[in-house]
Amino acid sequence: MRHILKIHRTLQGRIPDTDHGFSIETFNPSLHKQAWLELNNKVFINHPDQGNWVMQDLENRMAESWFDADGFFIAVENGHLVGTCWTKIHHDLVNQAPVGELFVVGVDPDYMGHGIGRAVSIAAMNYLFSKGIREAMLYVDADNVKGLKLYEALGFN
Question: Which PANTHER family is this protein grouped with (predicted)?
């Protein structure tokens, strides 16, 4: 049975990042949709929710009221998308300030271990902070050991 964790961290200021040798850009739908879709399906090849997307899945998410390309980050190395972190801001919570979600975080398996997941996650959290968001959250499968290690190192619990 699948076990999904919801983990949180506060955002108290900009988070510094180190030089990592690749560029972090914001998603441009007219330039990046197909490459992002291919990366997403490679990263989440066996994932029941995020894997096996077609273009309409991506376009449906982009049509949602919460979609903001400025909060959708991609890591690029030598012209190739190698990582992503897509944010979502939940404004509709009852009696609670808005919360920022790291909605989709993924790294090309061929580029794991190079700090890409950390870099795109930091870019996303800094974006959320710049929008006045003071709490971040994400959902992660309990058996995603690498993901949990990254998120714990970034202060999620």
Answer: L-AMINO ACID N-ACETYLTRANSFERASE, MYCOTHIOL ACETYLTRANSFERASE
Give the pairing type, strands 99-107 and 135-141: parallel
Question: Can you point out the beta strands (E) in 11-153?
Answer: 23-26, 72-77, 80-90, 99-107, 135-141
Is residue 84 a contact partner of residue 106, using CB atoms and an 8 Å limit?
yes
Cβ atoms 89, 133 nearer than 8 A = yes
| pLDDT tens, residue by residue, 21-65 | 899 999 999 999 999 999 999 999 999 999 999 999 999 999 999
pTM: 0.95
> DSSP string of 30-52?
HHHHHHHHHHHHHHTTT-TTTSS
DSSP state of 14: P
**H or E element at residue 145:** helix 145-153
CB 133 within 8 A of CB 99: yes
Domain edges within the chain: 14-131
Name the token pair of 10. 């506060």
Helices 55-62 and 29-43, axial angle in degrees (round to 10):
120
Closest CA to 116 of 79, 72, 87, 77: 77
